[in-house]
Design goal:
single chain, five-stranded mixed β-sheet, 16 strands, eight-stranded mixed β-sheet, 447 residues, alpha+beta, binds adenosine monophosphate, BirA Bifunctional Protein, domain 2, Rossmann fold, disordered C terminus
Length: 447
């Protein structure tokens, strides 16, 4: 008998696993660090909520005609409670916000979260059954300044990661009154065509006609193309909100495309709605990196005060796919390659000195050839390799190779610099190189 992980759910290991799932753990950690530091730079603080919630939380917040709630929940009964694995993070954050009366303690809350979500979808590249989302939520700020700031943060984050072709798609769904008027207009337009709609859409037409706009069925899309546009029926307040948001984005120099067909799969959105897409790397058809919007009615509908809110969630797998090869980066670690028996004891001692200075270090004490040691250093992704042979020990030096530097005597060969550094200086020089991301020449290595 052989055991395998559940379909659509994957292991993330220090080595790259076979198959469609992206990246080894180091790339995940680098992305998570980048997300956390960017969120914290913009004033968000982390929250952690349970993986399991009451099913009715999602029925109430996401909506019972959405794909997520209708088809994709991992639900089960335990102790007579109807429970499920969370399919997304916003409803849990809103539940926690209401449950702990956070609005009574502070007027505005900025939260972020990061963790696994579960949806029983048809698994394919970029679409998994357990997947990771990182997201931010702002409670208590009606925008539109914070809407613009949220979008700008995402654009800057993706730029910083090196995904250069990100496009922002923007729409406004209006507030509740506008939605109501639009619903009537849409119903009046779609009802005469009811028989030509897909089965799913016919069913949803009664309960929630807006969901028809989101349909992927070709027979629906043709009809949707000529449907009345929500942007044409925005109230004055909604229009003002939307236009001011665009002005702020213009001031940032953030480019965006207005996309009136953008509805997104969850029912809770109001006013601002956005998605960020890319065609970089190995993304393929699932090219939405991130989606979000305003959900001004959710806190109230969950039993809280009338608190406006906005947020987004991004799929970490999609971002790793977009990064492709770029995701692999040298780590700020040192690999010591000793040649010869005496060199091994020297290497162990040097390894201890480097670790005492807080530098992650691997000592290869296997007694293998230089070629095999360098292969291992490369596999580990170590940025610096220190070579200690009889010759170096005799001369009181350590040979240092920097696999990130473009300086140095043999910079032409694969972007690595190499030099002899006095044994007594090596810890200080390695620290300097790693701490300021500097090059070997700026660290003043003796060449
Ligand atoms: P949503 O929660 O549906 O608004 O999705 C927000 C983001 O999460 C999407 O833009 C994707 O990047 C990601 N995402 C959603 N569902 C999946 C999935 N099944 N597998 C991988 N990523 C997903």
């Amino acid at each position: 008998m052989s055991f395998r992980s559940v379909q659509g759910m994957f292991d993330i290991l220090p080595v790259q696993t076979k198959g469609e799932y992206p990246a080894a753990i180091r790339e995940w950690q680098r992305l998570e660090r980048a997300f956390r530091s960017s969120a914290e730079l913009y004033g968000y603080t982390e929250i952690r909520t349970p993986l399991i919630e009451h099913t009715k939380l999602f029925v109430r917040s996401i909506g019972d005609t959405t794909d997520v709630v209708e088809k994709e929940m991992y639900s089960f009964e335990r102790h007579r409670d109807q429970l499920c694995l969370r399919p997304e993070g916003t409803a849990s954050a809103a539940r926690a916000y209401v449950q702990h009366s956070v609005q009574a303690q502070e007027p505005v809350s900025r939260w972020y979260y990061l963790g696994p979500m579960f949806r029983a979808e048809r698994a394919q590249r970029g679409r998994y059954r357990q997947f990771y989302q990182a997201g931010c939520e702002i409670f208590g700020d009606p925008g539109p300044a914070c809407d613009a700031e949220l979008i700008e943060m995402l654009v800057s984050l993706f730029e910083g990661l090196g995904i250069s072709d990100v496009t922002v798609h923007l729409n406004s769904l209006g507030s509740a009154g506008t939605r109501e008027r639009y619903r009537d207009a849409l119903l009046a337009y779609l009802t005469p065509h009811k028989d030509s709609l897909s089965e799913d859409s016919q069913r949803r037409l009664e309960k929630n006609p807006l969901r028809v706009l989101d349909s992927k069925a070709p027979e629906d899309q043709a009809l949707v193309a000529d449907a009345p546009k929500l942007l044409d029926v925005l109230s004055d307040d909604d229009r003002e909100h939307f236009e001011t948001l665009q002005r702020y984005l213009d001031a940032y120099g953030v480019r965006y495309e207005l996309d009136p067909t953008l509805v997104r799969g969850l029912d809770y959105y109001t006013r601002t709605l956005f998605e960020l897409k890319s065609n970089s790397g190995d993304l393929g058809a699932q090219n939405t990196l991130c989606g979000g919007g305003r959900y001004d009615n959710m806190i109230k509908s969950l039993g809280g005060a009338d608190v406006p809110a906005i947020g987004f969630a991004m799929g970490l797998e999609r971002i790793l796919l977009a990064l492709g090869e770029q995701a692999t980066e040298k780590t700020d670690s040192v690999f010591i390659a000793p040649l010869g028996k005496d060199a091994v004891s020297e290497a162990l001692v040097l390894g201890r000195e480097l670790r005492q200075a807080g530098i992650p270090t691997e000592v290869d004490g296997r007694g293998n050839s230089m070629k095999s040691m360098l292969r291992r250093a490369n596999h580990l992704g170590s940025r610096l390799v220190l070579i200690l042979g009889d010759n170096e020990i005799e001369r009181g030096v350590v040979q240092l190779k920097d696999f990130q530097s473009s300086d140095g005597p043999d910079s032409g060969s694969g972007g690595k610099a190499q030099s002899d550094v006095p044994r007594s200086d090596i810890v200080a020089q390695v620290s300097l190189l790693l701490s300021n991301g500097g090059s070997m020449s700026s660290a003043g290595a003796a060449t």
